[in-house]
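REVIEWER CHECKLIST
Item 1: Sequence provided? yes
Item 2: Single chain? yes
Item 3: Sequence as submitted:
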Amino acid sequence: MNETRKASRKTYIAGIALFIAVYAVLFASQAGLRPMLIVCGSMVGGLVLWLKTTFRTPVETSRLLPVYLLTLSLFFLHIAEEFITDFPGGINSVFGSVWTMRDFALLIALLGPAIWIGGAIGLYYRNPIGYYLAWFVFFGMLIGEPTHYLVFPVVQSAQGGGYAYFSGMWTALFPMIPAVYGLVLTLREVKRQRERERSAVESAGTLAASRPAGR
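Item 4: Structure as written out by the authors:
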């Protein structure tokens, strides 16, 4: 049973690593290297945090799932702003990419939400992929969204014209707020679950030691 479980865990890790690699190649081919590093850096960061927390210690998700869904709702609002204000065009202007609105819609506005909503289902059933996608979303909001204030308009300003609005700037802050709470909540739940498991092991050891010899 343990060997089967280890093999299953390795399969999840390999599958997610492959997903990140494929997404990175696809994203770089459309938006360019630097935007890809921001998005896929979030994916790798989420992978590391997942491996250190909920991969080893699955937690109850009844409190986590609503925060995840709220973060996604606000992020979808942010994507809507990017769509309306031509985010791909802005990226093309500052990084020299050739990202089309069609590719942006397919990759970010359609494929992305399908994956993230699938993550909500995974969280509900406490599936490892759901835990990973939660980490990707929470961590990714804290890495990707600040670039709308600290990277894209700064690069745009350096090219002339001063610091000004960049596509997505109005709503970039919104998903960051629940993402911070989701990150803190996840770490808190992992800590509590590990304390419960440690207490259960200690109680079992005490009970075994208290039994009379020969029984």
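Item 5: Key structural point noted by reviewer: Residues 176-210 form the longest helix (35 residues).
Item 6: Recommendation: ____
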